[in-house]
């Protein structure tokens, strides 16, 4: 009998893992189980081009259905797995059906963190993670309507930028004293607050939401300080939670993500995992869990190789991107533990600069706004653990290539 | 419906049929050409769809466009005057027969 590999989850990691299995020589069956109605699609444009209406759902697909069929990759969509039975190597689906596997890949991703506040179930209160969410949000958009965004992270700020472009009155409420507080330096937060305000978005920091008012539909957001913000649409973006329950229930090691090694192996030799749902070892940063498309894709390649008995360790440098207005933000590395921030370019007046994060004189991360060259340079300097001269980095007249030769 | 060919650093050839209006990156991803990653989905943010065109084809598809594409390639390993990001090459019938070579690695 031909062996079967089942992939649980049908997003970015699965979209890479299934084809990579074929490329690595897997000749058995491949079944991908997804709880949405779509074959894998690009998620980053959801809060950008898709919300804006520039792209259709079909255009979001990572590749068309026929390509998977051609390579004998079978999708079971609209289907949830309710249990992994490791002893008998089967899965139980939500309707009780059982499927046998020889190799299993868990690519369950992450789900949005929800609020438990009065009124959070009202119509017009939405989260943003999948196509369905954005389709629902778009029912409430329109010129001069009022949108309140809860959470000043990347999703919140990207959404604010798009809704503003659609002609809405937009307010962002952030609980912390500054936007992007968890992920960037105060210098970056100040920059983004300046740009959003210049574009006409109202940003309120230190703002604690206490509930939502309305009969069936939301009409206002209530804040803990007693203020009340009229709203036709509320989008909540306060982070995600890794989907690790299936793995944990099956007795796999889980600690802020399914624990995998550099070959994407879980604590069961027949089960790999990849993407947002995993935590993996990184030479530069220790054990990390990333919420990122490149991480999902690259780790999935490793997982596919592992299933096929090959050895392709994963230790890629984390990187991320965000688009807001005319800003193209590219981020390399992780800035945890930085002790110095070096700014290159005019942060206070322009829309083009880079913030470099140093730790003991070594570059560990960079946030680059409309600075692709600084981004590409940073990826190389961070990966090679290079000690850099802060004064030179800050000198915008100095050729970037000069950093590669020293 | 142009037919284009991707050639890996170790001379493996992948001929694919692209749709008019599709980018070379999408044509590669659709046909599972190994060596074109396209991590960012085609917004020129990652530089993982780096390809080379020879002079003759470069004249037809054009050199890397000023701005983000040139900037991304400026500090990409092994980039040359013949380098392009495949996500920035939009294909049409006039590109039938296009040959794009891939670098040994995209990272």
SSE order and pairing:
The complex is a heterodimer of chains A (406) and B (107).
Chain A (H helix, E strand, L loop, with lengths): L3 E5 L3 H12 L5 E5 L15 H4 L4 H4 L4 H6 L2 E4 L4 E5 L4 E4 L4 E3 L2 E4 L3 E3 L12 E3 L3 H8 L7 E5 L3 H12 L3 E5 L12 H13 L3 E3 L4 E5 L6 E4 L4 E3 L2 E4 L3 E3 L2 H5 L8 E2 L11 E3 L4 E5 L3 E3 L4 H15 L11 E6 L2 E7 L6 E6 L7 E7 L2 E8 L2 H12 L6 H5 L7 H4 L1
Parallel strand pairs in A: 1-2, 1-7, 2-3, 7-19, 9-16, 10-11, 10-16, 11-12, 18-20
Antiparallel strand pairs in A: 4-5, 5-6, 8-17, 13-14, 14-15, 20-21, 22-23, 23-26, 24-25, 25-26
Helix pairs in contact in A: 1-9
Chain B lengths: L2 E5 L5 E5 L6 H7 L19 E3 L2 H7 L6 H7 L8 E3 L13 E3 L6
Parallel strand pairs in B: 1-5
Antiparallel strand pairs in B: 1-2, 3-4
How would you characterize this protein structure?
The complex is a heterodimer of chains A (406) and B (107). With 406 residues, chain A is an alpha/beta fold. Chain A folds into 3 domains: 4-111 and 241-307, FAD/NAD(P)-binding domain (3-Layer(bba) Sandwich), CATH 3.50.50; 125-236, FAD/NAD(P)-binding domain; 326-405, Enolase-like, domain 1 (2-Layer Sandwich), CATH 3.30.390. In chain A, 25% of the residues lie in helices and 28% in strands. Chain A has helices at 12-23, 49-52, 57-60, 65-70, 131-138, 154-165, 186-198, 245-249, 293-307, 372-383, 390-394, 402-405; strands at residues 4-8, 29-33, 73-76, 81-85, 90-93, 98-100, 103-106, 110-112, 125-127, 146-150, 169-173, 202-204, 209-213, 220-223, 228-230, 233-236, 240-242, 258-259, 271-273, 278-282, 286-288, 319-324, 327-333, 340-345, 353-359, 362-369. In chain A, the strands form 7 sheets. A 5-stranded parallel β-sheet of chain A has the order 3-2-1-7-19. The longest helix of chain A has 15 residues, at 293-307. The model of chain A has no long low-confidence stretch (mean pLDDT 96). Chain B is globular, with a radius of gyration of 12 Å. Helix content of chain B is 20%, strand content 18%. In chain B, a hairpin with a 5-residue loop joins β1 (3-7) and β2. Chain B has one domain (3-101): Ubiquitin-like (UB roll) (Roll). Chain B is α+β, with helices and mostly antiparallel strands and 107 residues long. In chain B, strands 2-1-5 form a 3-stranded mixed β-sheet, with helices on one face. The chains are: A alpha/beta (406), B alpha+beta (107). Chain A: It holds the Pfam family Pyr_redox_2. Chain A: Residues 319-403 form the Reductase C-terminal domain. Chain A: Residues 5-300 form the FAD/NAD(P)-binding domain. Chain A: Its cofactor is FAD. Chain A: Keywords: Dioxygenase, FAD, Flavoprotein, Oxidoreductase. Chain B: It comes from Pseudomonas borbori.
């Amino acid at each position: 009998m031909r062996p079967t590999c089942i992939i649980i989850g049908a997003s970015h990691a699965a979209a890479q893992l299934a084809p990579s299995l074929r490329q690595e020589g897997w000749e058995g069956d491949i079944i991908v189980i997804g709880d949405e109605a779509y074959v894998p699609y690009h998620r980053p444009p959801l809060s950008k081009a898709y919300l804006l209406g520039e792209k259709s759902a079909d255009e979001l697909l990572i590749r068309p259905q026929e390509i998977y069929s051609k390579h004998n990759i079978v999708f079971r969509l609209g289907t949830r797995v309710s249990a992994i039975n490791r002893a008998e190597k089967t899965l139980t689906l939500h309707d009780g059906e059982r499927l046998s596997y020889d190799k299993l890949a868990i690519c369950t991703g992450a789900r949005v963190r929800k609020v438990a506040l009065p009124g959070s179930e009202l119509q017009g209160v939405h989260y943003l993670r999948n196509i369905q969410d954005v389709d629902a949000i778009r029912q409430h958009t329109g010129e001069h309507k009022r949108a309140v965004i809860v959470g000043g992270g990347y999703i919140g700020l990207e959404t604010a930028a798009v809704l503003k472009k659609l002609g809405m009155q937009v307010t962002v409420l952030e609980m912390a004293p500054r936007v992007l507080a968890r992920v960037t330096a105060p210098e970056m937060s100040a920059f983004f607050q300046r740009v959003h305000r210049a574009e006409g978005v109202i940003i309120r920091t230190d703002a604690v939401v206490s509930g939502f008012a309305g009969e069936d539909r939301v009409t206002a957001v209530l804040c803990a300080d007693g203020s009340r913000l009229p709203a036709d649409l509320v989008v909540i973006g306060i982070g995600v939670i890794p989907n690790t329950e299936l793995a944990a229930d099956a007795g796999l090691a889980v600690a802020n993500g399914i624990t995998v090694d550099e070959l994407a192996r879980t604590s069961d030799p027949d089960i790999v995992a990849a993407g947002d749902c995993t935590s993996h070892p990184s030479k530069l940063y220790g054990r990390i869990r990333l919420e990122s498309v490149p991480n999902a894709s690259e780790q999935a390649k490793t997982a596919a190789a592992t299933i096929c008995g090959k050895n392709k360790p994963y230790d890629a440098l984390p990187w991320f991107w965000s688009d807001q207005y005319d800003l193209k933000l590219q981020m390399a590395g992780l800035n945890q533990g930085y002790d110095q921030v070096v700014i290159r370019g005019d942060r206070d007046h322009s829309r083009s600069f880079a913030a470099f994060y140093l730790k003991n004189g070594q570059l560990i991360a960079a946030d680059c706004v409309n600075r692709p060259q600084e981004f590409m340079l940073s990826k190389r300097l961070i990966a090679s653990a290079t000690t850099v001269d802060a004064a030179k980095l800050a000198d915008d007249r100095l050729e970037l290539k000069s950093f590669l030769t020293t | 419906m142009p037919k284009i060919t991707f050639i890996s650093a170790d001379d493996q050839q992948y001929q694919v049929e692209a749709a008019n209006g599709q980018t070379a990156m999408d044509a590669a991803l659709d046909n599972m050409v190994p060596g074109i990653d396209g991590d960012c989905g085609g917004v020129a943010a990652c530089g993982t769809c780096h390809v080379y065109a020879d002079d003759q084809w470069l004249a037809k598809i054009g050199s890397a466009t000023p701005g983000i594409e040139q900037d991304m390639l400026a500090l990409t390993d092994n980039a040359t005057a013949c380098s392009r990001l495949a996500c920035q090459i939009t294909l049409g019938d006039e590109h039938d027969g296009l040959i794009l070579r891939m670098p040994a690695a995209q990272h």
